[in-house]
Write a structure and sequence with these properties.
The complex is a heterodimer of chains A (174) and B (146). With 174 residues, chain A is mainly β. Chain A contains two helices and eleven strands, in the order ααβββββββββββ. Chain A has helices at 10-14, 22-41, and strands at residues 49-55, 59-66, 68-70, 74-83, 87-94, 102-108, 113-117, 120-128, 133-142, 148-158, 161-173. Chain A has a six-stranded mixed sheet, with no helix packed on it. A five-stranded antiparallel sheet of chain A has the order 1-2-4-9-6, with no helix packed on it. Chain A is elongated. In chain B, a hairpin with a 2-residue loop joins β1 and β2. The longest helix of chain B is centred in the middle third of the chain and has 24 residues, at 55-78. In chain B, α4 crosses α5. Chain B has a four-stranded antiparallel sheet with strand order 2-1-3-4. The chains are: A mainly beta (174), B alpha+beta (146). The interface between A and B is medium-sized, with 22 and 24 residues.
């Protein structure tokens, strides 16, 4: 048998004594990577959109937006108001979490008026006839420094009268 | 602050990847590996600096990565147990002309790859090898028979 090179311990480096479990650590870590990839494919880390619906006698409100987004990415939120009755002065009130830490690239169609009420964003949409559908698009980009989970509230009003409201959860990954 | 955290996370993740992927895969530098290396670098850069084009951002990100590298290097130097985890250990692949298949398979290496590496080291047959060792950096060192 040849003398081993300096620094080589035959038991440890040839016979792998005490190293039998090492490949299992590597396999476990590879499985962890695969799990993360699988979760991403299932939409866990964004940006698969989902729809939340709130129904009332006067109107139905649908909000379609991703529940999870990531820093720097573009996404869209779509607000659909299906009026069952005339809404003379339809107004959407979005909680501050709809805007804070995000860049709003555009709101289409532009509301008749915008305002602030206790920190919430007020969008006055105007008259929506009974049986009509009004769709509002908001296009966003997530600011890279924004992370965490937040609750988003939307209220639909007719003038000062609440019609319906809903809440959603949004998770922002770094 | 966030760029420092992102750079530290990127460093830790790349370090983790290099340990998980395996030594041989990383040490080989085929054209495909080279392209993947560039793609990986680009992905990491985007995740670290994102839309920060400032010199300050560059200094913070590069400085953080350099500091992390020094830290790993110091831990390697100072603690033997950590060195085994962070750098790995050599594995004997050939002893006195005999290929140790168990060790070869453990590193997902074929006999053909071993022979190729031997040829690159001007060795025509593994029978003429006294010792072949897969080193921590992924290279295979050959010590020929006298």
């Amino acid at each position: 048998m040849a003398d081993q090179p300096d620094g080589i311990l035959l038991k440890r480096h040839r016979d792998l004594q005490g190293r039998d479990w090492h490949p299992w650590v590597r396999r476990g870590l590879v499985a962890l990577l695969a799990l993360v990839t699988l979760l991403a494919l299932l939409g866990f880390v964004g940006q698969h959109p989902s729809t939340t619906r709130a129904e009332a006698t006067a109107a139905a409100l649908d909000v379609n937006a991703p529940g999870s987004v990531r820093g720097g990415l573009l996404y869209q939120a779509r607000f659909t108001i299906a009026a069952h009755q005339d809404l003379k002065d339809a107004t959407l009130i979005l909680s501050s979490e709809w805007i804070d830490g995000l860049t709003v690239n555009t709101i289409e169609p532009g509301p008749l008026n915008e305002g602030s009420r206790n920190g919430d964003l007020v969008l006055e949409l105007g008259h929506i006839a009974g049986g009509d559908k009004y769709v509002l698009y908001m296009d966003y980009q997530v600011n890279p420094t924004t992370v965490g989970s937040r609750t988003l509230k939307v209220e639909l009003l007719d003038g000062d009268q609440p019609v319906t409201s809903l809440t959603r959860t949004q998770r922002i990954w770094p | 602050m966030d760029v420092v955290i992102r750079a530290a996370i990127a460093f830790a993740f790349i370090f983790f990847l290099t340990r998980v992927v395996g030594r041989r895969e990383l040490s080989s530098m085929e054209p495909f590996d080279l392209i993947m290396l560039i793609v990986l670098g680009d992905l990491v850069q985007q995740g670290v600096t994102q839309s920060d084009y400032s010199v300050t951002g560059l200094v913070l990100a590069a400085g953080t990565i350099a500091l992390m590298q020094v830290l790993v290097s110091y831990v390697n130097f100072r603690f033997k147990r950590a060195r085994i985890v962070l750098e790995g250990e050599p594995i004997v692949l050939v002893e006195d002309g005999r290929v140790l298949l168990r060790n070869l398979h453990r590193e997902r290496l074929t006999r053909g790859e071993l022979e190729e590496q031997a040829r690159l080291s001007q060795i025509d047959s593994l029978a003429n090898v006294r010792w072949a060792v897969l080193e921590n950096n992924g290279q295979i060192s050959f010590i020929p028979k006298q």
